[in-house]
Design brief:
The protein is α/β, with parallel strands linked by helices. It contains 10 helices and 10 strands. Strands 3, 4, 5, 8, 9 and 10 form a 6-stranded parallel β-sheet that branches. Helix 9 links the parallel strand 8 and strand 9. Helix 7 runs parallel beside helix 8. The longest helix is centred in the middle third of the chain and has 19 residues. It is globular, with a radius of gyration of 17 Å. Keywords: Hydrolase, Metal-binding, Signal.
């Protein structure tokens, strides 16, 4: 499915996504100062061990030399998780903490600018990537690993999961986890369904693959390309403790997103918000 077709379908699903986003009783992520610890509120997990967000990423030459499958050490089996009924929508804990997330990338025209802005302000974020985009732009995932960002799974081709069979959903998720591990250095521990369209199979397969489901609290609406000022207003007016912000670094013209983050990110920091990320589970 082409990205412009996905964008059109995304508009049609806005109402459903908004309804999901209002379900404030879903799980929450618990964060703390410094190296943030994360666990699902509804299913406490052991405290994560200290360490970086990912193992050292492969260098550019290794991308060309190492096959995605076949020879090499066996993959580390993911730790199976409790199957949820709803995605995580927000973080909990004391202080003014928020999580910034970016979907659909990586994209060579927009992702580097967003990474530059995050680096300038020493902020880490989450990137929910599509496997088909990673194939052509592995160096951007390597940079995300090096700069401490968390990479999540957003399927291979960004399909509407509710229209697929269980085997197709597994393929979309598993292929993406494999290429993330080969490129980023660690398997993803977070999954976001395209369009925010979840079903039982997505929750079950995500848990089998060691991924917690994450949605969002505040939609910047950048996928509609509403104008830079509108995107800035969406973030600034929606900012609050525990919020998870949804933005996009691919899937269309994201130049408005690039310009907007240069405005709203320093605003959040000046307002006393701490932008956090989940820490890798053991």
């Amino acid at each position: 499915m082409q990205k412009d077709q996905l964008f059109t379908r995304r508009r049609m699903l806005l109402a459903g996504v908004a309804a999901l986003g209002s379900a404030g009783t879903a799980g929450a992520v618990l964060a703390s100062d410094g190296e943030e610890t994360v666990r699902a509120a509804a299913a406490p997990a052991p405290a994560p061990a200290p360490g970086p967000q990912a193992r050292p990423a492969l260098g550019p030459s290794a991308f060309r030399l190492q096959p995605l499958t076949g020879y090499g050490p066996p993959r580390t089996p993911p730790r199976k998780l409790k199957v949820r009924d709803e995605p995580i929508l927000r973080i909990s804990g004391s202080g003014r903490r928020m999580v910034l997330t970016f979907d659909d990338g990586p994209h060579p025209d927009y992702t580097p600018d967003i990474l530059d802005t995050l680096a300038r302000h020493r902020v880490r974020a989450m990137f929910f990537v599509c496997g088909e985009c990673v194939v052509e732009h592995r160096e951007l995932l390597a940079r995300m690993a090096e700069e401490g960002h968390v990479v999540g799974n957003h399927t291979w081709t960004h399909p509407l999961l509710t229209s697929l069979g269980r085997r197709e959903i597994r393929s979309e998720m598993e292929r993406t986890s494999d290429i993330i591990e080969d490129t980023y250095g660690d398997r993803p521990q977070w999954f976001r369904a395209p369009y925010g369209a979840w079903n039982r199979a997505a929750f079950q397969l995500g848990a089998e693959l060691g991924m917690e489901p994450m949605a969002w609290t505040v939609d910047t609406t950048d996928w509609m390309e509403p104008g830079t000022d509108t995107i800035v207003d969406q973030v600034e007016s929606g900012a609050a403790p525990g919020v998870v912000v949804l933005s996009h670094d691919a899937g269309g013209d994201r130049s408005q997103t690039v310009r907007a983050i240069r405005e709203w990110l320093p605003y959040l920091l000046d307002s006393g918000y701490h932008l956090t990320v989940p820490r890798r589970r053991v």
